[in-house]
Task: inverse folding
């Protein structure tokens, strides 16, 4: 049979321990890559949502500042008109808006900080993802060339990628 030697060679390759070890390495790295990739996307989304919430808080703060200014203006006008009762009401509004604006500012700054942390986490996960993808490429080269160097490079890349991604837990 003409194709028998090629078939025998393919069967021999399939049972070769090197290809099986490299294939198992690729499968493990791919599983870790999937986890890191999804986590990176989640962190990126979290960063954007927190930044949007912070932006909303700043807008709310701005509206309180406008109301505070209007209340201060009205209180001054009523004080000039000698209507102390109305001036006191608007002064109370001014004080309340000023307190609200301070709280909104603090909350917006907290949200911005959280957004920054989520962004740092996302970036770290994306860097880990790059190393994991490179690890798969090196392992694939190992199968094609049957060289241990590429396999060990793939393992090293996978470990580096996993460690870089795991450092996301250190970011607070």
Result:
């Amino acid at each position: 049979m003409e194709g028998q030697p090629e078939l025998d060679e393919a069967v021999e390759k399939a049972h070769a321990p090197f290809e099986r070890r490299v294939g198992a390495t690729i499968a493990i790295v791919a599983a870790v890559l999937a986890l890191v990739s999804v986590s990176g996307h989640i962190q990126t989304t979290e960063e954007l949502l927190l930044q949007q919430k912070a932006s909303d808080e700043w807008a709310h703060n701005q509206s309180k500042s406008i109301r505070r200014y209007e209340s201060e203006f009205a209180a001054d006008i009523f004080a000039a008109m000698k209507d102390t009762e109305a001036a006191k009401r608007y002064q109370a509004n001014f004080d309340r808006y000023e307190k609200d604006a301070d709280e909104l500012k603090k909350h917006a700054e907290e949200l911005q900080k959280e957004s920054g942390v989520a962004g740092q986490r996302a970036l770290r996960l994306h860097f880990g993802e790059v190393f994991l993808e490179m690890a798969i490429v090196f392992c694939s080269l190992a199968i094609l060339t049957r060289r241990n160097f590429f396999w060990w490079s793939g393992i090293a890349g996978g470990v580096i990628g996993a460690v870089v991604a795991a450092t996301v837990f250190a970011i607070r």
In short: The chain has one domain: 17-170. The chain has a mean pLDDT of 91.
